């Protein structure tokens, strides 16, 4: 059991990669706090963990709202006494070349994908600092390092998360806290299915074409990223600090 006795908070874990990571962390013994904006999906993930014999509860909070994030952190610490792992996973996609993009769409993606990493970190860090230990995993993307058509706003957020990760690591290393980033390629989740539907006349054809861009010949699955998140959460990655971890089927180097 790689996370026995640990308490892990995963933002946006009602769906996709977050959900898959929550199920995997619970299998390895963690008490997993599920967070999501969508209460029905979050409650469902948490109930699934409990039904399988694991420990979990759900806290609804919008990661862009400081008062909700603070209340969530306070509730977790009062119920469990600590937070060992924070996985800043919640995020949304953004499609559109910059000249077509409305300002409110830009503001929303910046808020969820960047401020949504800042706020949970801001409120969880003091508890980790007090206990002089913790692992923070920030969700970046391989798009931080490659150009993709009509994805500039999204790419900007994921580049920011990668830069944030490295500087956070410098600030908190002396407290025994590790901060690393995940850089997935294209992973088949509701987020990508939605992107394909909204962006292409023929989503099936778009899916086939996306597959040819991977050295692996197929898109990734949420479980592939969950396994990497588990590694960063656990002591097995104790010598990784401020590192980007690619799970991309070879899309960056192909
Ligand atoms: P998803 O849409 O399946 O899940 C995201 C979850 O975040 C949803 O349940 C949603 O309700 C929640 N959420 C959105 N806004 C929130 C908010 N303000 N507060 C709390 N929860 C909120 O998406 P996914 O594909 O699992 O993506 C998860 C993360 O992985 C995102 O940060 C995404 O950018 C990143 N990522 C995904 C891929 C991919 O190909 N799927 C690739 C690279 C990075």
UniProtKB/TrEMBL annotation:
GO molecular function list: glucose 1-dehydrogenase [NAD(P)+] activity
Oxidoreductase among keywords: yes
GO terms classed as biological process: bile acid metabolic process
EC number: 1.1.1.47
Protein name: Glucose 1-dehydrogenase
Similarity remark: Belongs to the short-chain dehydrogenases/reductases (SDR) family.
NCBIfam families given in the database record: PRK07231.1
Presence of keyword Oxidoreductase: yes
InterPro entries noted in UniProt: NAD(P)-bd_dom_sf, Sc_DH/Rdtase_CS, SDR_DHRS6-like, SDR_fam
Source taxon at top rank: Bacteria
């Amino acid at each position: 059991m790689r996370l026995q006795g640990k308490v892990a908070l995963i933002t946006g874990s009602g769906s996709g990669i977050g959900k898959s990571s929550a199920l995997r962390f619970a299998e390895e013994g963690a008490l997993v706090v599920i967070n999501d904006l969508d209460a029905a999906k979050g409650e469902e993930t948490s109930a699934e963990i409990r039904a399988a014999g694991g420990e979990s509860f759900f806290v609804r909070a919008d990661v862009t709202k400081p008062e909700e994030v603070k209340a969530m952190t306070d509730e977790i610490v009062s119920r469990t006494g600590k937070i060992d792992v924070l996985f800043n996973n919640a995020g949304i996609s953004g499609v559109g070349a910059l000249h077509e993009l409305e300002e409110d769409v830009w503001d929303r993606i910046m808020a969820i994908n960047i401020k949504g990493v800042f706020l949970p970190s801001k409120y969880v860090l003091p508890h980790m600092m007090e206990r002089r230990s913790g692992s923070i995993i920030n969700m970046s993307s391989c798009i931080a390092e490659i150009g993709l058509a009509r994805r500039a706003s999204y790419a900007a957020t994921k580049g920011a998360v990668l830069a944030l990760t490295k500087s956070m690591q410098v600030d908190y290393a002396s407290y025994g806290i590790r901060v690393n980033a995940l850089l997935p390629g294209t992973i088949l989740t509701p987020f990508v299915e939605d992107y394909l539907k909204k962006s292409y006349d023929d989503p099936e054809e778009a899916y086939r074409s996306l597959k040819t861009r991977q050295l692996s010949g197929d898109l990734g699955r949420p479980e592939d990223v969950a396994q990497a998140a588990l590694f960063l959460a656990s002591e097995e990655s104790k010598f990784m600090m401020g590192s980007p971890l690619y799970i991309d089927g070879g899309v960056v180097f192909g």
